[in-house]
Amino acid sequence: MLITISAEHFIFMLRNPIPNSLGGVYLALVFWSLFKFLNEDISPKVYLLLLIFSFTLSITHSISTIAMFIALGSVFMLLMIHESILKSSRDASKKTFMLIILSGVVVYFWWTYISGHTPKILDILKTGLIATKLIRGYAVMKTKIHFFDLVIGVIPVIIYHILALIGIAILLFRRGIKEIVSDKILALTILIGGSYAVLGSIPRLLGFALLAHRWWYFSEMFLSVPVAIGVSNILIHKSKLIKLMGVITVAIYFTLTLTEPQYVSIDGMSYYEKDSFRYSLILSELQYTNFAKVHNITCVSSDEYYAYVLSILGMKTEEINDELLTRSFETVKCPVIGIRTYMLFHPIKVHQFVYKVPYNPLRILSPRVEWNKIYSSNALNVFRKIYI
User: Fold this and answer.
1) Alpha-carbon dihedral of residues 302, 306, 308, 309, nearest 10 degrees?
2) What is the mean pLDDT of the chain?
3) Highest mean pLDDT range out of 81-85, 208-212, 287-291?
4) Distance from CA of residue 259 to its chain's centroid?
5) Per-residue CA distances from 347 to 138, 222, 301 (Å)
6) Is pLDDT above 50 for 112?
7) Is residue 135 a contact partner of residue 154, using CB atoms and an 8 Å limit?
8) Fewer Cβ neighbours under 10 Å: the N or C end of the chain?
9) Can you tell me the distance from the alpha carbon of 380 to that of 309, in angstroms, rounded to the nearest whole number?
């Protein structure tokens, strides 16, 4: 309705097909609770301010979609629990509403801090890379977790999701299934968000990584929550201004989607030109799987894999002087099941120089990576010539 966030921003965190589907329904319920909270009594001015606020966050931290979801999802979660407990959420005072919005902002900065997308105002704060990798699912197994990382990183995220699920359970119990089914906005949102989640996970389930990525890219325009929200505003709301906001929501979202970086081709495969995170996802899944198949193995050491990846970029491992890119890692014993295994079990050397390439001048880089060394390395010079 007022935040143009597509379902993949949450599903982004959940890479298995079943959680993907649940993620779509989960996000649909969160949005529905926000609809119920705001109903048709929302002031158009408040609507516009929150819309601007959400886009401001999106533009200044465009890569950090997870941070966007956690921050704004926290707002939705609190709204949801607030509505579930109170008889009429519309009786809530302005102070309560502002407190909820403020909590979302706080969570946003907290998440960007621990996830490596640190705003400049927090540059002096530093935490271990372990917490980042754990929260993002890069190193769940065989990783020593420091108590500090656990406290600031893992436990709050777990608590957040538990509270969100409790809020949904209370909401479902209080509203009843019949009302949920009969609610046009909820039905439309679940249909679009849930369908996106299910259909988007089928290619991944079948192992077609590139097809899944292309599906992900194109389906953003047609099967995403913000489009459902915008269309709902246009069709359902009586206020002409709210209808206009719905048109603006859909228009801006389509504009943002259509202006995504275009594909380029390397070694017969397509990657995003500048979106280094998505590039690294495709590269890791396709090449890790191909490497394993070519060598007829089910386990591979990270050093062997990185040497293979660097060879794709026209490099040799010995050409890399940066200790960060040449450090030896323990051989990881794991079945080859594509990106899910790779991302879970590898600290990812190559990912650190592929993903951390800046392409948004408004985005502040993490202070945890030694950029001077990486940026001057031969590997990144090759990457810069191709992608930047």
Assistant:
1) 130
2) 42
3) 81-85
4) 18
5) 6, 35, 12
6) no
7) yes
8) C
9) 13
Question: Residue ranges of the domains in the chain?
Answer: 8-258, 263-387
Is residue 87 within 8 A of residue 42, CB to CB? The reply is no
The Cα–Cα gap between 282 and 279 comes to: 5
Structure tokens at 30: 């969160």
Measured CA to CA, the distance from residue 173 to residue 180 in angstroms comes to: 11
Phi-psi region of 370 (alpha: psi -120 to 50; beta: other; left: phi over 0): beta
Chain centroid, CA 74 distance in Å: 14
pTM value is 0.28
